[in-house]
Amino acid sequence: MLDIWRGLWILIAGVSLSACSAFGSFGGETFILEGGLPADFSLKAQAEYDVANECNGSWQIKTFQTNFESTPQQYRFKIPVNYRSGLCEMQLAKVKLTINGRYGEKEWQQTYDNGGLVIVDKLPEGAPTFGVDGVIAKSAMCTWWFQESKLYLEISKLLNCRGAGAYLVRDELPGRRVMLSFLVNAEEEPSHNDTWVKFPTGWKPCLPKPGWQSCQRPPVFKTFKMNGRECTVYPNCTD
Question: ∠76-78-79 over CA atoms, to 5°?
Fold first, then answer.
C-alpha cells in the first residue's frame, strides 16, 4: 500500500513539474521602446494584450508614461511581449501612443496627438526592419497648428505628429529595441488652409467669406487676441 501511495505522489509531482515547465516557457520576454522628447512634451504608451490560450480571461493593458519636463528628455519603456496572468498566456496585440504637448502655463494650453506600434505577422512592403544590432530607429515630426479659439477667444493650438509609430513583427520583438524620437517643426502652420495669409513678418488672419471659413478675395485682415494682447500678426503679435 505504501508503495502505491509513493508511486501516486511521484506521478503527481511529475505532472506538476511538467505543468510548471510548460508555463515557464511562455512569458517574461520584453522589448525596449525608447527615444527623445522635446521640452514640454510627454509620452504615454498603452500596451494591449490578448489571451493566447484557452482560459477564463480577457484582454489586458499595461501603461508606461513620462511627465512633462521643461527641458528635452529621454524616455525608456521596457514592454513585455508576452507574460502569464494566472492560467492565461497574454501576448502583445498593439501599443497605443499618446503624444502630449503644452504651449503655455494654462491648463487648456496643452493638447495631444496619437501614434502607435502595430503588431503584425508580416511587415508591409517598405516598412523598416531591425538592423543587425537589433534596433529600429526612426523619428516623428510634430508640428503645431495654430488657430483662433472660439472657446477662449485667444490663440489655441493643435498638435500633428507625422511618423509616430512603426510596424513590428511579434516574433522578432523579444530582446530588440525600437528607438522612436520626437522632433518639433520650427515652423508652425494654421490649422485650416486659407484662413491666414503669410507675410515676411508672420501670419495674418483674414475675415471669411459669408458662410465659409476661407478668406475673402481680396483678403480683409482682422486682429486677434494672444496672451491678453490685441495682435495683428502671429507669432510676433505686431508687425
Answer: 125
In the chain, where the domains are located: 26-186, 196-231
Separation CA 26–CA 23 (nearest Å): 6
- Is 12 strand, coil or helix? helix
DSSP 104: S
pLDDT in tens, 5-39: 344 333 333 433 333 333 334 568 999 999 999 99
**CB of 58 closer than 8 Å to CB of 203:** no
**Amino acid identity of 161?**
C
Question: Which of 26, 168, 43, 154 lies closest to 84, judged by CA?
Answer: 26
Is the preceding omega at residue 235 within 30 degrees of 0, hence cis?
yes
Torsional class of 35: left (φ above 0), alpha (ψ -120 to 50), beta (otherwise): left
Q: Which one-letter amino acid corresponds to residue 223?
A: T
Cα dihedral sign for 75, 81, 83, 89? positive
Place of cell 471669411: 208
**pLDDT tens digits along 183-237:** 999 999 999 999 999 999 999 999 999 888 899 999 999 999 998 899 999 999 9
Grid look-up 494650453 returns 109
Single-letter code of the amino acid located at 225: K
Beta carbons of 122 and 163 less than 8 angstroms apart: no
Q: Which of 191, 181, 186, 187 is nearest to 159 (CA)?
A: 191
Burial 79-93 (b: 16+ CB within 10 A, else e): bbbbbbeeebbbbbb
Q: What are phi and psi of 84, to 5 degrees?
A: -110, 135
CB 93 within 8 A of CB 140: no
pTM, rounded to two decimals:
0.85
